[in-house]
Amino acid sequence: MKIDFSKISNVEIENIQMYDYPDFCDAFIASADYGNEEMNEEMINYINDNEYGFVNEYIHDNQLYC
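Predicted structure:
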């Protein structure tokens, strides 16, 4: 599956456990938008299962120090 990560917005990540810093291996995308539409379950599952670097980077860039 080809995903343009620059089109992903409004990401909601669940199960962020600070004791698991910096890996956050149990965290996952619960919902997100792709372009102007809500991301479907297939895309979310694909990212959670295959593109974990995106999830981890998103946590570090957007949620740790807010």
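Summary: The first helix runs from residue 41 to 50.
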